[in-house]
Amino acid sequence: MTTLENGDMNTFGPELPAMFDGMKLAAVATILYVIVRCLNLKSTTEPPGITYQDTPLSRYLLKSCPLLTKEYIPPLLWGKSGHLQTALYGKMGRVNTPSPCGVRKFLSMPDGATATFDLFEALGDHSTGDDITMVICPGIGNHSEKNYIRTFVDHSQRQGYRCAVLNHLGALPNMDLTSPRMFTYGCTWEYAAMVSYVKEAFPQTALVVVGFSLGGNIVCKFLGENRSNQDRVLCCVSVCQGYNALRAQETFLQWDQCRRLYNFVLADNMKKLILSHRSSLLGLNSSNIGDADLGRLYAATSLMQIDDSIMRKFHGYSSLKEYYEQESCVHYIHNVTVPLLLVNSADDPLVHQSLLAIPRTLAEKMPNVIFALTQHGGHLGFFEGAVLFPQPLTWIDKFIVEYTDAICHWEKDQPACQKSRFTCKNKTCVFYLFS
């Protein structure tokens, strides 16, 4: 065995500490580099990118909505990461959440299902003096008790809006199903029932339609399904939706931006929700869900597998492709003629960049559409704050109300003959609002 002489050891002696110091510096530099990249700290803040046509209404909105042209500034340390924005929203929804007091309404559906929604009265007069109701559709598997919904409702109430919030069928804890059906990606039945109730209960109210994520798909599809659904609707706001379910599910199978991981987590949550209603889905006579379907559900690792084994069968779709095509708002949204605000975030890990071509093209072609794309915000995050701790009220909460206020004042200031947006003379309809 060869050994080093004392002289040789002395030769390496001075170099070893320097070598270790160099390794420590390299490790620190690597960690800092990873932190900067993961937190996207080098990204700059800027106003939302806006796609719109030059119309009197769009010019009015640009003047009346400062948040359309003002920088959105997320929390300094973590707010530029779409993953952290999304994770924080998913974990806690909002911080210091208020508890608005509402009344739960129950509506019997033709197929035996029991739809529910919560009604929250305004906490003051609206700045226009009018009676205005926000009809709100939450995200996937969500309801009025979710923190982000409670925060938005409280803010809207304080600005003079009555709020009606749909509870997705099967989403409320301790609320049993009365038919073998749950909410699906684009079923508008329960939302339509809520809107009809509000119109009948408050004949003088105007409506503001708001949808978050999956709810954005539902409200846009609802408005586009039938022109009569837009009666008394002042405007519609959709936040962080994917527009095309077939394309969205294809991107969910990719590892880019960890979408495959998000898909697994969302599928696991959806699986638990469905299994909590197992007895209702299996026990009711009209159910077309069997033990074999639930067996495939247990093995599912993606939303697409769950949709194929369970969700499409609620409405009798023969294939997954048919289900996604029929339930996506992309086939209906071009029929919406009321002012339509579509909001997405460029760093939303759940909505692939290719899907954003849909709202952008729509805004380029239709004068009633504005597409706002923020650099940061994640999926339904949009937190604001100085350095570390976010504010309870988010950018999107304020933005929706600011936009809606502007639309309400625009409508208030229009001549009476133009308030309905359409006037027919000798069977020729003239479209005033955006010309």
From TrEMBL:
| Localization terms from the record | Cell membrane
**Which SUPFAM superfamilies does the UniProt entry name for this protein?**
alpha/beta-Hydrolases
Provide the AB hydrolase-1 domain boundaries.
Answer: 133-386
Domain of life of the source: Eukaryota
| Gene Ontology MF terms in the entry | acetylesterase activity; monoacylglycerol lipase activity
Instruction: List its EC numbers.
Output: 3.1.1.23, 3.1.1.6, 3.1.1.79
Q: Which residues form a coiled coil?
A: none
Please explain the role this protein plays, according to its UniProt record: Progesterone-dependent acylglycerol lipase that catalyzes hydrolysis of endocannabinoid arachidonoylglycerol (AG) from cell membrane. Acts as a progesterone receptor: progesterone-binding activates the acylglycerol lipase activity, mediating degradation of 1-arachidonoylglycerol (1AG) and 2-arachidonoylglycerol (2AG) to glycerol and arachidonic acid (AA). Also displays an ester hydrolase activity against acetyl ester, butanoate ester and hexadecanoate ester.
Q: Could you tell me what this protein is called?
A: Monoacylglycerol lipase ABHD2
